[in-house]
Structures are given as structure tokens and as C-alpha cells.
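Handoff note, outgoing to incoming analyst
You'll be picking up this chain. Sequence as last confirmed:
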Amino acid sequence: QVQLVESGGGLAQPGGSLRLSCAASGFTFSSYAMSWARQAPGKGLEWVSGIYSDGSDTYYADSVKGRFTISRDNAKNTVYLQMNSLKPEDTALYYCARDLTGWGEYDYWGQGTQVTVSS
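Most recent structure output, in case you need it:
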């Protein structure tokens, strides 16, 4: 069965960095675009970043552009989110998701990893 398992969350200081990982299994990882999304306390789900199946194209929300970098290693069935220059408003539960069509139709989600940015 399809599984997405996020890791790498934690507590970071403003201006600090974290690297999230999402390990995928149960499907041909290299055939699917992947995305990261987040949900802050009391707020709705926000799409953060996406990457094509072969890693050739990446996309970012304006709120993270220039600070976050998405990447993937198809040999390891893993997608990453490098987060730099973290801000308190980046505090959220971060999810990875499989994009069924490559057009933002997400059919599987991980359980999430918590990121807290605070001094």
C-alpha cells in the first residue's frame, strides 16, 4: 500500500534551518510529482512547494520562495524540503503528498511532521 512518512521536523530559532524528508513506498515514486503543504494552528491547509516526477521543475508558494528548496532522490524514493531563514509564521504541521495527475490532485498524504519556529 502507498505510504508517505515525513520526518525532520522540530524546533528551530528564527533565521534557522530545518530539512524535512518524506520517504515513499508502495508505488513507483519516480512516476509521480510530489508536493509539500502545511497547516498552521487555527488555519487552513496551505500548499508550499511541488516538484515534477523527474525533478526537472519545482514550484513554490510566494510565502516561501527564496527560502525553501524542494528536491527529490528517486533512487531513495524520498522528497526533501530544505527550509532556510525560518520565520515564526512557518510554524505548522508539514505534510507531503502524492500528486496523482501532476496538476494538484493529491491522493495520498503523510501523517505530517511538526515544525515550530520560536526563540
